[in-house]
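Students often ask why inverse folding is considered easier than folding. One informal answer: many sequences map to the same fold, so there is more than one right answer. In these notes we will look at a single instance of the problem. The structure comes first.
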């Protein structure tokens, strides 16, 4: 844990007592803060009480008593309307911050030179964050990984000059971290997302921009207009910027040629590595993730040899194009995290042919019609859940399909059919393009069941990670 000493002997309100909220309250208490906490959920309040956190109904308190409101990132700050705690804090003229901000203040107070890599973007954050941490560990660095991925930032060991914090940051966390100033800031891409919480795309982009504009080194993917404009502004302000693109040639920056990643400096090219043959980094989107990770660790002095070794041994992330193993000649891929068509597009684009696609669940707006350009890669589809009938209408006349209804039936049917494929390595792909809520509590449960079903098949051979 990182005790928060910067509010020692002060009274602070904490609202939102999920996993990170309880850790935040405990970290403040450990640093000598008087914490008064609350949550609208009775279950969350019960968990906090069991953790010996003082509960006070903040709706009935005078906020001028507090030095700050520490807010869970899941609580609306601006849109669709500010939460009632936000309105009370603003009326009392106290600051509104989050757990990432508390970490930043501890770092500034006790170890201002501690290496800190922060990663954001609409897509690819988690893979890039995990890959950066993996590359640093391969290079022998002391690394802690957390934030929006896995462990709450204040649950990690404290910042120190010989420990690297690798932190995934959501837009909500950035919005609550005014003093965020990483050693290396990574912005991968920007597409419309979370606009219910940010109001407009311009506001969403401006929040993401804060992470890189304050960084010592800013690494920015420039394959969308929003990020190109941000990179231009950072350079105009004399910040150190590394541009990367997987779509166009750059005069200076990091590029790709197929699966090869290379540096370009004033038109001169130098190859870094080739991702071909690395099953955990399939697809153009993973070339972008890898390029960003390479730039980030290079900024901390990791050698190309360590980078190449780390890329080869990267185990990947659960439920994100996760390689489970083989059934006969067919590779089995768990992409349960793909809860919409945009995410599934990246999976379908990662295989040129022979896809035995398991899809369905509770459909998102737009269905799977945007995936039409990839239909010729799909050998057969197995449709499950509430979306099965609608997906069948979209596929009819383009892709052979069967309405399997359940994941169990789909896995059995796909594994049988894949063995008769003419493809040298057919792919049994769970990439649902749907929410899981009709049949599963969450995408993790869905992916775990897929893994269990595949592992139970006769002849299953597991993928050896790393």
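Output (designed amino acids):
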């Amino acid at each position: 844990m990182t005790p928060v000493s910067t509010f020692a002997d002060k009274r602070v309100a904490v609202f939102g007592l999920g996993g990170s909220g309880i850790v935040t309250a405990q970290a403040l208490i450990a640093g000598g803060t008087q914490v008064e906490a609350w949550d609208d959920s009775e279950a969350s309040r019960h968990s906090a009480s069991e953790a010996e956190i003082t509960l006070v109904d903040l709706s009935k308190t005078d906020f001028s008593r507090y030095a700050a409101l520490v807010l869970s990132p899941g609580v609306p700050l601006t849109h669709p309307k500010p939460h009632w705690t936000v309105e009370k804090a603003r009326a009392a003229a106290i600051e509104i911050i989050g757990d990432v901000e508390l970490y930043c203040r501890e770092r500034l107070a006790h170890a201002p030179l501690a290496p800190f890599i922060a990663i954001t973007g609409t897509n690819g954050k988690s893979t890039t964050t995990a890959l950066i941490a993996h590359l640093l560990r391969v290079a022998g660095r002391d690394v802690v990984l957390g934030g929006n991925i896995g462990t709450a930032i204040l649950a990690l060991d404290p910042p120190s000059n010989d420990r690297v914090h690798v932190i995934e940051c959501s837009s909500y966390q950035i919005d609550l971290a005014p003093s965020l100033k990483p050693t290396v800031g990574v912005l991968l891409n920007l597409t419309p997302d979370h606009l219910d919480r940010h109001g407009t795309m311009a506001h969403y982009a401006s929040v993401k921009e804060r992470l890189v504009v304050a960084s010592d080194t800013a690494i920015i993917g420039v394959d969308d207009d929003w990020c190109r404009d941000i990179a231009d502004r950072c350079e105009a302000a004399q910040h150190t910027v590394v541009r990367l693109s997987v779509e166009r040639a750059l005069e200076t920056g990091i590029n790709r040629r197929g699966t090869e990643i290379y540096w370009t400096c004033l038109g001169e090219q130098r190859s870094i590595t080739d991702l071909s043959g690395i099953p955990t980094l399939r697809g153009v989107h993973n070339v972008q993730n890898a390029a960003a990770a390479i730039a980030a660790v290079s900024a901390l002095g990791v050698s190309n040899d360590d980078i190449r070794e780390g890329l080869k041994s990267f185990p990947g992330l659960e439920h994100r194009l996760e390689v489970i193993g083989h059934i006969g000649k067919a590779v089995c891929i768990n992409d349960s995290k793909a809860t919409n068509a945009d995410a599934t597009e990246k999976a379908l684009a990662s295989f040129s042919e022979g896809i035995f696609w398991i899809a369905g669940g509770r459909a998102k707006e737009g269905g799977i019609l945007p995936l039409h350009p990839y239909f010729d890669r799909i050998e057969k589809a197995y449709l499950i859940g509430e979306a099965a009938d609608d997906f069948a209408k979209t596929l009819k006349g383009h892709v052979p399909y069967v309405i399997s209804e359940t994941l169990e039936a789909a896995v059995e049917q796909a594994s049988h059919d894949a063995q008769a494929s003419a493809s040298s390595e057919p792919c049994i792909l769970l990439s649902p393009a749907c929410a899981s809520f009709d049949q599963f509590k969450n995408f993790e449960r869905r992916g775990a069941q897929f893994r269990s079903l595949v592992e139970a098949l006769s002849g299953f051979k597991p993928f050896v990670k790393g």
